[in-house]
Design a protein that fits this description.
The complex is a heterodimer of chains A (about 110) and B (about 110).
Chain A (H helix, E strand, L loop, with lengths): L3 E4 L2 E4 L5 E7 L5 E7 L5 E8 L2 E5 L6 E7 L2 E6 L8 E8 L8 E2 L3 E5 L1
Parallel strand pairs in A: 2-11
Antiparallel strand pairs in A: 1-3, 3-8, 4-5, 4-9, 5-6, 7-8, 9-10, 9-11
Chain B lengths: L3 E4 L2 E5 L4 E7 L4 E9 L6 E7 L4 E4 L2 E6 L4 E6 L8 E9 L4 E4 L3 E6 L1
Parallel strand pairs in B: 2-11
Antiparallel strand pairs in B: 1-3, 3-8, 4-5, 4-9, 6-7, 7-8, 9-10, 9-11
The chains are: A mainly beta (about 110), B mainly beta (about 110).
């Protein structure tokens, strides 16, 4: 029944490692997003994909690479993890046009040691 | 620059009391304004979405108001419950809803 699901929920890793976070939505939406929520709780857009095509790519290090195999999935791969990458990463989806209400996943808390 | 500012940053109230959270924005052109509730350790969940022509919208004990002229919105919570303890985030959309600007949120704690 979960509308937007992301895994893993928690991820603890060493600096320099490469890790991935997966996201899937079963709402039939055509747009998916990755947001980063820092320790001050601000949510910042990282990427937006519409029908598997990159629409928004905010100022994010190129160590972050999103991959959308189909419009129901948007995965986030992070290379050479740094301490500053520690945050909660949220996947979201919406249907383009109209109010485009966002549906968020439960978040993936990444801790880089 | 598009900005969304929320006040207060944090708020503590007693169970059963009412409270009002504020949101001021400078986003232009305006498409819609959303209020989200984020429980600790969870993802944000939509409470209301209001377009330019809507002045007020309710969702149970939550009532949002919008003044598009002064670019202000408020979220009023009636008869608060312990489960209302959460962060409340104001989000304003422009460009037909495709570009979102997030506020920093108000952290509400309801005490018994």
């Amino acid at each position: 029944d979960t509308a937007v699901s992301q895994t893993p929920k928690y991820l603890v890793t060493q600096m320099g490692n490469d890790k991935s976070i997966k996201c899937e939505q079963n709402l039939g939406h055509d747009t998916m997003y990755w947001y980063k929520q820092d320790s001050k709780k601000f949510l910042k857009i990282m990427f937006s994909y519409n029908n598997k095509e990159l629409i928004i790519n905010e100022t994010v290090p190129n160590r972050f690479s999103p991959k959308s195999p189909d419009k129901a999935h948007l995965n986030l791969h992070i290379n050479s993890l740094e301490l500053g990458d520690s945050a909660v990463y949220f996947c979201a989806s919406s249907q383009s046009g109209g109010t485009g209400e966002l549906f968020f996943g439960e978040g993936s808390r990444l801790t880089v040691l | 620059k598009n900005q969304v500012e929320q006040s207060p940053q944090s708020l503590i109230i007693l169970e059963g009391k009412n409270c009002t959270l504020q949101c001021n924005y400078t986003v232009s052109p305006f498409s819609n304004l959303r209020w989200y509730k984020q429980d600790t350790g969870r993802g944000p969940v939509s409470l209301t979405i209001m377009t330019f022509s809507e002045n007020t919208k309710s969702n149970g004990r939550y009532t949002a108001t919008l003044d598009a002229d002064t670019k202000q919105s408020s979220l009023h919570i009636t008869a608060s419950q312990l489960s209302d303890s959460a962060s409340y985030i104001c989000v304003v959309a422009n460009n037909a809803g495709n570009m979102l600007t997030f506020g920093g949120g108000t952290r509400l704690m309801v005490k018994p």
